[in-house]
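Holo model, NAP. Inputs:
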Amino acid sequence: MKTAIVTGANSGIGFVTARELLKDGYRVLCLSRNMRKLDAAVQNLATQTGSKECLAIRCDLASFKSIRNAVQSVKDCTDEIHLHINNAGLILSERQITEDSHEATFQINHLGPFLLTQSLLPLIEKAAGASGDCSRIINVSSIAHKAGLKNFWDFKAEKSYKQFDVYGRSKLANILYAKALATRLDPAICTANALHPGVIKSAFGADGDTKGLFAWGVKLMPKLPNFISGLMTVEQGAETTLYVARSEEGSQVTGQYFKNSRIAKPKTLGDEAIERFYHYSLTCSGAPEIPASFSSH
Ligand SMILES: NC(=O)c1ccc[n+]([C@@H]2O[C@H](COP(=O)([O-])OP(=O)(O)OC[C@H]3O[C@@H](n4cnc5c(N)ncnc54)[C@H](OP(=O)(O)O)[C@@H]3O)[C@@H](O)[C@H]2O)c1
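Output:
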């Protein structure tokens, strides 16, 4: 049986992704920060799919300590991960600093998933060897990454705090991380891609104190009927993730950005900046480097 990790599986796009992967026959490790919500979601997933192969693991991406504990819990459950989906994410309207001294949106949306993924690379590598198929890493980014180019290197948001720019920066980071992995990992062993799920009616934007026009929109839009708001359902929101997870193309291309289940062109940085960013992320998160056996170099 293949094993998948889905972060943020208790809600929205992550819940649907986990549900569909269970139906595909995966064992799914659901990671999120709130055990009450997560336990309820896992029960719900079991009822909806009839599968008992769904496990809840606490992982607060705002805390490196919690992530390291989650990595240990994952290792206690399995030594192979075929599919690793960094789906959890949020937008915060107020600047917050984590216990690890990073700006919270940047840590939750990028540095935390970075530490989690890097720590699990040996399990991801092992799965590919055992199944003969390549493993896949998928980062759920956003079209909002375009706003991240402005002051990209201001990761602590010391110059200014504009929630949409800060969120965009973290979502650009998801794309850059997929690209950095793609240059490092042997694509026969693992592909790494990012994607925009669409603009989706979910709990997104409900975290944090919402202020300003954007926050107002984020709160109001889901209350309107879909044909007025233009928002898509969470089922539609999971389609591109599932496409990259299931399709031939998702095992053949790496370092790409998908939108509407097709390769699209993101706004990005040059190769040198991506390298610099990868090393910055390693230093900030204390994550382990890629195992030498897994490297394409
Ligand atoms: N909705 C959209 O229109 C849209 C558009 C583009 C991209 N995206 C991206 O899609 C992904 C999924 O979003 P969604 O729309 O499904 O929103 P959602 O329903 O709010 O789901 C987000 C998930 O992330 C989890 N999460 C938040 N902070 C966390 C933390 N510190 N540690 C661990 N888990 C945490 C949430 O847990 P809690 O339930 O405990 O908060 C929840 O399970 C996100 O990465 C988002 O950036 C969404």
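The radius of gyration is 18 Å. Residues 7-8, 10-14, 32-34, 37, 59-62, 87-90, 108, 140, 142, 196-197, 199-200, 202-204, 207 surround NAP (CB under 6 Å).
Archived with the compound record.
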